[in-house]
User: Fold these one by one.
Assistant:
Number 1:
Amino acid sequence: MFCCGRGFGRKERGKKQPTWRVFSLKELHAATNNFNYDNKLGEGGFGSVYWGQLWDGSQIAVKRLKVWSNKADMEFAVEVEILARVRHKNLLSLRGYCAEGQERLIVYDYMPNLSLLSHLHGQHSAECLLDWNRRMNIAIGSAEGIAYLHHHATPHIIHRDIKASNVLVDSDFQAQVADFGFAKLIPDGATHVTTRVKGTLGYLAPEYAMLGKASESCDVYSFGILLLELASGKKPIEKLSSTMKRTVTDWALPLACERKFDELADPKLNGKYAEDELKRVVFVALLCAHSRPERRPTMLEVVELLKGESKEKLAQLENDELFKTSQAPEYNDGTSAAEESSDFISEEKDEKQDSK
Ligand SMILES: Nc1ncnc2c1ncn2[C@@H]1O[C@H](COP(=O)(O)OP(=O)(O)OP(=O)(O)O)[C@@H](O)[C@H]1O
């Protein structure tokens, strides 16, 4: 089904040198000290991820499928297929894969600074390594990676699981968008695909959560939530009491309308941020997370707005109706008072493509 390859479209801007190969199970056992518990970096829906070192000294992260099943094998094939065809400076590169017997493993470059989640809310959060410049670079870099998937990859790709644990940070604190296992390839001419709802609550666009309509604008919504998280240090859903929850958008919109940016900024920044940039990030984020998909910008527009390239478009953004008075009730996606026992959705629906 697969062979070692060099991807395609090598001439396109922003791409890295594509090279990947098939690894033997023996080589991966040697690299990870037999998948030693001490080498374990984390665990996701697919299985565990281990740190390893190859004979040439290079460091790798090996994702090992938990339990073999036809469904898991499909997800494995989707991730390998997608990773093999995309190469961009802000998308996590595939080093290779291994499929021997019932073992399925994916090999990536190791990201020494782990995920955005670990910096914002996890093991790195106390170190406060994410100053404002780094946050801005991560915001722009991850937007460029997603814009590449939406607008330059052929066929176009919807990620479907944009969230803080899927944005990894390399040694230069540049963003690497990861975890393409849920991604969907969009055939030419299709506006969206109706599909199984998969993703993480708090990041799910309302039309996707309710109707299973996946399109690029669902990723834009999730990216908006991620931007708010990056700027404010708040989680997508905050627990206010045992029965009440508040989404980060419900919290941020009234503050943005009142231009209270000092209250929106992550307290860990200690007031050290560029106010015009923070303002930009918050306005872009809230427009991305609009409940009506047609009001959301494209990822190409998001990149342009975050970079502040067009003063005219920034002025338009700031004067958007959304920021005139608090629109919280209309804007609300309905999750604020929801009672969820799990923050992960996996609901089967018929898969059908919808072209217009
Ligand atoms: N290339 C990598 N370099 C460093 N750490 C990694 C790498 N890939 C994954 N990790 C770590 O392993 C953890 C598990 O990753 P994985 O993608 O399997 O799951 P997840 O994104 O946390 O959850 P889910 O599968 O539900 O999306 C991540 O949170 C991350 O910290």
Number 2:
Amino acid sequence: MPADVDISDLAEAAKALLLRLAAQPVLWTVGALTVLYVLHSIYIYTRLRQFPGPFLAGWTRLPLIKWHVGGKAHLELQRISETYGPLARIAPSVLVTSDPELLRRMTAARSRYKRSSWYMAFRFIPDRDNIVSVRDNDAHAQLKMKLAPGYSGKDTVGVEEKIDDNIRALISLFKEKYLSGPGETNLFDLAQKMQYFTADTISDISFGKPIGFLANDADMYDYLKTSADSFPFLIVLSLFPWLMHVMALGPIKKYMPSAKDSLGMGRIMGLAEEVVEKRYPPKVNDVHQDMLGSFIRHGLTKDEAKSESLLQLLAGSETTATTLRMILFHVYVNPRILFKLREELRQARPGSPITHAEASKLPYLQAVIKEGLRIYPSITGVMLKDVPPEGDTYQGKFIPGGTAIGYSVMGLFMNKAIWGEDAATFRPERFLEGTKEELQERDVTIDGAFGWGRWKCLGRGIALMELNKLVVEIIRTFDLSVVYPTHPFKNYNAGIQVQWDMWMRATLTEQKF
Ligand code: HEM
């Protein structure tokens, strides 16, 4: 200290500064909150410091938000799984896994894990849950018990026939409107037609008649456009689930889709509600053998039936459409695979349309479908689950209760240890070659495209039936060629994948399969 500074002057200056600060409550509050925030961040950071991950992700959710908003979260999570291992940190309280064993443990019937608030975004009617948004395990189990018999086909008749009717409608549409003759190219967007097919099929199965996409060859009520436009919004909701509470408030709710709308999601809600209204109160001698009839017999209330009927369309159209597009796309750009599939049909000589039972016995077809589910999974969302309050342990590391664990589907489906060095290529043979154990592991893992255990997809059986039948009917009827091979289609990923502009040229096949 310089000799000419008096210690009493310093004390006076410090006292004056403190007095001035004491007179500034706002400054104190901001200072105290900053200290609390920093201490809280350090505490949260240390809770999961045993798990590796990008440095920033340990301190803030900003990277997670950036990946999602940029539509590349699935690829970023794959990179993280490959770089940091099977359980890595992606946000201060969020981990991501690509380990199929951990995923099976988390989702097992008796597991104490539960769905995180991420699922609230799937309340398509903001103040009403459905089977995908319901988070309480007991409430979910009770609802699933009422829905499962209808979805499984045990309690319904005519599902396969309805799928056949819609296949015939699609094949006729292609033949009447989209065949190319010699010297001409009659373009059509395969991505769009696949969704017309899946949306009509699922509405036929759940509402009793198709909405009419195929019959009119049009996006009825702008439904497909408005639902695709809402996907970016869905991402924001899944990352900020508290917004759902805001949306359920009266003044905001009136701007949400409503059953009274003449277009978009609201119009589809209206169609679902009209069908449900006619069936309530349930009659003792109700003879409906469809899904809604089954739901009603198992005690679904009118409001629940409205939510579930709408959900079927949302959960069952874009998902199956993406898988159909990707299977057909990869088959038609790989003549070797198309040839093998057709050879299998030539030998088996199935009826037309092929039955689900016949298709299930064709090993190469089954391998192609599994490879389609793997190479381009239609659902890539993190599907966060909360670790139970008592915590869990993974490879000797403790995971504190309340941590959310998400799923890296690309990390799992591109894992070379499971799928081989050529995991990034479309090669159906990987489901037919290898030891019994390897094949079993691949079969169990690919079934994870539909989720596992407690939350496994209820529409899996219907989706597989659609895939089995439509893939065969298309490849035995048409030769398709990709019109713009350097940019074959466009894709947006919002946790659910959407494609468009998949331009194709179709001619009739000259051979019979
Ligand atoms: C290729 C097509 C499909 C794929 C890849 C797929 C995938 C999935 C996945 C991964 C889940 C699990 C979500 C979670 O863990 O929380 C799920 C759930 C569900 N899916 Fe699908 N899905 C497909 C088709 C369908 C169809 C056609 C329907 C309707 C007919 C449907 C209805 C449902 C329902 C209702 C649930 C909720 C199950 C529950 O919470 O217990 N899905 N789906």
